[in-house]
Amino acid sequence: MPKKNEKQEKTTTAWLALAKVVDSLLDKFGWPGLLVLFVIYLVMYRATEDQVHALIDMYLLGRGIGTVYPIAVMGVLFLGVLFAQRHLYKRKENQMREELARIGGEKSGRQEAALGAKLHHSPERIG
Predict the structure, then answer these.
(1) Is 110 a member of any domain?
(2) 58 assigned to some structural domain
(3) What is the pLDDT of residues 1-29, one digit of tens each?
(4) Domain count across the chain
(5) What is the pTM of this model?
(6) Three-class secondary structure assignment of the chain
(7) For 56-73, what is each residue's pLDDT tens digit?
């Protein structure tokens, strides 16, 4: 019988593996794509035949939308995904800018060392 620590380590390892899979899917497809994959998984493997037909009728074909809640839920979900994707892109953009600045500084430093003189740099552009 496995010890408590071994069981805890296996559980932690499983969660880390799941987090890596989600992270790689998020990196590849973004928040909208990850959400679509999750919904497809839920519909394909967790919904009954009647639930699948009801979801298709209401959200894809627009039948039976007599109340506001389906549209409101979709709108709030869309806005949440939109802001999450924007945050992800801003973070990636900032990482790329920092890396370009680092590479440019390293390149200039090596050129100055090879020439033995200080290089003239144009003013930095903002934006």
Answers:
(1) yes
(2) no
(3) 556 667 777 778 888 998 999 888 888 88
(4) 1
(5) 0.55
(6) CCCHHHHHHHHHHHHHHHHHHHHHHHHHHHHHHHHHHHHHHHHHHHCCHHHHHHHHHHHHCCCCCCCCHHHHHHHHHHHHHHHHHHHHHHHHHHHHHHHHHHHHHHHHHHHHHHHCCCCCCCCCCCC
(7) 888 778 787 777 777 788
